[in-house]
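Minimal example, chain plus fe (ii) ion.
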Amino acid sequence: MPVPESGSREFRKGDLSLMGGGRMKITRRKLLGNSLRAVAGLAAGACAPGCYLDMAFSPFVTDVSEKDLNASMLREIMDSESGKGESDPFCIALFGDSHHYYSNTEQVIRIINSRDDIDFTLFLGDMTNEGLAEEYEIAHDLFKTLKVPWVSVIGNHDALNNGTDIYSKMFGTFNFDFMYRGVHFIAHNNNNWECGSDPDYDWLEKTARESTAERRVLFSHIKNSNQAYGRYSETDVARFRQIAEKYFSMVVHGHAHANSSLEYIGNVPEYEIGSPEYGHYMFAHFGEQSIEVERCML
Ligand SMILES: [Fe+2]
């Protein structure tokens, strides 16, 4: 049985089946700031047998208004790259774990938008609590206010219920990579419990090994260099460390919420970025030979 992380209970597929086909009228705005659990409890208490409530969200809904967002964002990133030299410095913004912390997330977005030196934003996963389509839509409504393109890796909460189906429709493949100004960015899905399979380390190693870039940045939702809660086996931890140390210049994760931290895998810096819940976000400045990081708080 997994131990709860990040100060919240780990939800698994099927947890919300208690909601059944119950229907309750609730709008996106009403959902803001409320936990789904509270809403579900209200529905259960208010709905007499046979009554009909119009429910605007459900764990069974997987249709979303936006499709293949990562692909379209990457096209924007590629378009913005033209005319810029590989050795010119650039800066990216990073944050994750927005969950239902919409107000703080809005503040982080406002700060990113206030700067004119940001080329794009990497979102490190968990834009939802329960992997619901409506939560994905709310997050998109918020994230689309970013002035720069943004790409997202899937978080463990995003994979709950039918979240993997929704993420696939809305963003595309779980593992993906792209080049920007000579740096190879590699996104790796490591939500083993929620996705029901081990992280694809073969894909990660092959993608890194075949990369011709001088620098590679790995971003995944969960820090997999330690064995907190027994999520990853010793074998997987050792393999991840070997890949990270051999091929990467920097490794970045979310999932931590309360803290941002810096540790090293050999000489490779490994950052964990806390959540906007606690005011955390980050900027990374890529110079010709350097990567400098600003770890920020609201
Ligand atoms: Fe997480």
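Residues 6, 97, 126, 155-157, 221, 255 surround fe (ii) ion (CB under 6 Å). Confidence is low (pLDDT under 50) at residues 1-27, 29-55.
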